[in-house]
Amino acid sequence: MNNAELNEFLEKYGQMFRPNPWHGIKTWDDESKRVLNAYIEITPNDRVKYEVHKESGYLMVDRPQKFSNIIPQLYGLIPRTYSDKKSADFAESETGRTGIVGDLDPIDICVLTEKNIKQGDILVNCVPIGGFRMLDGGEIDDKIIAVLKDDAMFGHITDVDQVPTAVLEELKHYFLTYKEIPVKEGEAKVEITDLYGAEDAMKVINLGIEDYNEKYVK
Known about the structure:
Layout: H1 3-13, E1 36-42, E2 48-52, E3 59-64, E4 74-77, H2 85-95, E5 101-102, E6 108-112, E7 122-136, E8 139-140, E9 143-148, H3 165-177, E10 190-197, H4 198-216
Parallel strand pairs: 5-8, 6-9
Antiparallel strand pairs: 1-4, 1-7, 2-3, 4-6, 7-8, 7-9, 7-10
Helix pairs in contact: 2-4
């Protein structure tokens, strides 16, 4: 099923059945491809890490947090994206490293908002402004940073360099520590190689769409 056929199917049957948020939701909310649809898995109120069950689209418990790490902002995935060869090749070109592979997951996204949104398993409209280039054991695991569309505090921001440093440092600390710590001997360390702006964020998203299409769109 190609993209046109999938869109036609969703328009015809989308109101009858709940679509899988990874495969059944459009990446972009508008024709200008400026506003993303983001599926939110966890919120700052969650002490359990939830993750979408890829086969069914239902939200499942990934793991209870072993430490006091709480995601500072909304966190989830970008529909119809996938981290594979094109995404990994771009990371290699930007870092100068070799041997990087995709993590074979949808691209993660963190959405900045001043609202206390307590409900996960929702869709939000947001605008990408940058991202963290993150490596997890040699796998690319980018974290796109976006702002909630029309948010009172963050909605005017167009690039990550306009975000207060304290907000970015809080996010960075979470992503570097939210997995099992301390790192066991012999395990690869999670690292953030750099923070990039809106232009590179768009490149990462579009490459993730290309990787997705090569994997899932026939």
